[in-house]
Write a structure and sequence with these properties.
CATH topology of the largest domain: TIM Barrel
Number of domains: 3
Structural class: alpha/beta
Distance between the termini: 32 Å
Number of helices: 19
Oligomer: single chain
Radius of gyration: 22 Å
Helix content: 25-40%
CATH superfamily of the largest domain: Metal-dependent hydrolases
Shape: globular
Bound molecules: zinc ion
Number of strands: 22
CATH architecture of the largest domain: Alpha-Beta Barrel
Strand content: 15-25%
Largest sheet: 9 strands, mixed
């Protein structure tokens, strides 16, 4: 009986960081069934000569924001064409469910755009997962977002939660875990959470996650100046709740960069206590966020209509500009508006990829007025506006990466060159994240070996998520695989071209089916919505 697929003469980089070895890999019924260093596997129904190319497990992106884009187009072309086979959604406290107040929760979805014509017709997390679970082109690992849970329980308010509101939030956490969420994410640096969500609130919610063996994933507080405090809080939450912790894009922002070593050491210390702590970083110095992150928490209180009214109110504008604690963005405080670039503006394609400084010059306006005008013009869809800011320095990224607990997450969204998402581009990572890791970290900066970089993108995130049947090339495991030609493997995206296809991705398999051939998606939809069972996958 011949196997479904045999990949012969590959250099297997198995995901454990062991040195590569030459072998043939047999795949049947979606699983890896044989790894043979000789030539004993009979001809497969599909028989591929890898000719010495590199066979790796399919890559994981532990930090992506495709909660909305995969509803619009589930083909996942931009992800699978870079060798990704699994992505984690619901990060940084942003996510589409639960959605008790649909209008308000819509604003808590990074990458949301009203122009896609998709109505939120779900309320619970389970209903959202059922909606997402249609014809997926990539495996998806869902986290439930604290922002949507809080908004569903108490609206958008810049004050601490009352006990009964925390109780309501716990209800929604349980519902999400019952439906298959792998854990809870929070975005405590964002408005209004930085100023209103207490540690106690998060501990109460995360305890429910810990009891079920799930993961607490957090975009920590105070990343501009006091990164160490935000990380210390995350560790305290893990300790008090007994929950596994993933600190998202842990590297302190550029103005707190002197704290990088201390932050990493605090994680080491916590591990000595027995806590389970992982973290991730992206291979870029710039990072995306909603344009509203320039505003203080109180600016976003009330209904969407209330908020829009304010954007046209001079007194409000003066107060925001005056308010000292407002800026998540230190560059704005320094008047460096060239460091804030608009990347998402559904109604204004003409402003895409332009900095606020550039727009201020073109429009002969004060930069703050550019921000208010864009927000006002977007109407109640003001949260659809997204920007990227210069957030990190490569020296700190490398320090972070040298820690063996660091995996990679792109902080981008999954898109497609065809169809309704073809003009969207949040950042180069949408199309080029995986090869960018290898170009920067392995080839040019020589911070990791190829094998170790593969581990950071495969078995490390898989084990952090509690997924035990993917992420390693081993008999019995699911055949999510990527075949790479090292001669042509490279990221072709640039800051002016976000859409370029990577070089060298010869073949991608999901569950033993070919989904990418010669660099191009075949159109096969073999992804699965992975649901944690009782919190443990
Ligand atoms: Zn984040």
């Amino acid at each position: 009986m011949s196997l479904d697929i045999v990949i012969r003469n590959a250099h297997v980089v198995d995901g454990t960081a062991s040195p590569r070895f030459r072998a043939s890999v047999g795949i049947d019924q979606g699983r890896i069934v044989e790894i043979d260093k000789g030539d004993r596997i009979p001809e497969g129904k599909i028989d591929i000569n890898a000719d010495g190319k590199l066979l790796t497990p399919g890559f994981f992106d532990i930090h992506r924001h495709s909660d909305w884009t995969l509803l619009v187009d589930s083909s996942a072309e931009s992800a699978i064409e870079q060798g990704l086979t699994t992505e984690v959604l619901g990060n940084c406290g942003f996510g589409p469910a639960p959605a008790v107040d649909r209008k308000r929760v819509e604003q808590n979805i990074l990458g949301h755009s009203a122009k896609h014509g998709i109505e939120i017709d779900w309320t619970t997390f389970g209903e959202y997962l059922d909606r997402l679970d249609r014809n997926l082109g990539i495996n998806v690992v869902p986290l439930v977002a604290h922002g949507s849970i809080r908004t569903s329980a108490m609206g958008v308010t810049d004050r601490p939660a009352e006990q009964d509101e925390i109780k309501k939030m716990c209800y929604w956490v349980d519902e999400a875990l019952d439906s298959g969420a792998f854990g809870l994410s929070a975005g405590l640096e964002y408005a209004p959470y930085q100023t209103s969500t207490t540690t106690e609130e998060i501990v109460a919610l995360v305890k429910r996650v810990g009891e079920r063996g799930g993961l607490y994933s957090t975009h920590t507080r105070y990343r501009i100046f006091n990164s160490d405090k935000g990380v210390a809080e995350a560790i305290q939450i893990a300790r008090e709740s007994g929950t596994r912790l993933q600190i998202s894009h842990i590297t302190p922002r550029i103005f707190a960069r002197h704290m990088t070593e201390a932050v990493l050491e605090s994680c080491d210390k916590a591990r000595e206590e027995g806590l389970d702590i992982g973290f991730d970083i992206y291979p870029y110095e710039w990072a995306p966020g909603p344009l509203t992150e320039l505003l203080p928490g109180w600016a976003l209180e009330g209904s969407a209509d209330d908020v829009v009214q304010r954007f046209r109110d001079d007194q409000f504008k003066r107060k925001v500009v005056r308010e000292h604690r407002v800026n998540l963005c230190r560059w704005v405080q320094l008047d460096r508006w060239d460091k804030v670039i608009i990347v998402g503006a559904p109604k204004r394609p003409d402003v895409i990829n332009k900095s606020i400084a550039q727009l201020a010059q073109e429009w002969s306006k004060d930069p703050w007025d550019v921000v208010f005008d864009l927000l006002a013009e977007a109407g109640t869809h003001y949260t659809d506006l997204t920007e990227i800011t210069h957030t990190l320095d490569w020296e700190d990224i490398l320090l972070t990466i040298r820690d063996p607990h660091c995996s990679f997450g792109s902080d981008s969204s999954t898109l497609s060159r065809k169809g309704p998402l073809k003009d969207e581009a949040m950042m180069p990572g949408c199309y080029g994240f995986v090869p960018r890791v290898f170009d920067e970290v392995v080839s040019s900066r020589k911070a990791l070996s190829f094998e170790e970089a593969v581990r950071r993108l495969t078995s490390l995130p898989a084990s952090q998520l509690g997924i035990w049947d993917r992420g390693i090339i081993r008999p019995g495991l699911v055949a999510d695989l990527t075949l790479i030609d090292p001669k042509t493997f490279r990221d072709n995206t640039t800051w002016t071209d976000f859409y370029a296809r990577p070089g060298g991705i010869d073949l991608v398999l999901i569950s033993g089916k070919v989904v990418v051939e010669n660099g191009c998606a075949t159109g096969a939809r073999e992804g699965k919505l992975l649901r944690a069972k009782g919190g443990v996958a």
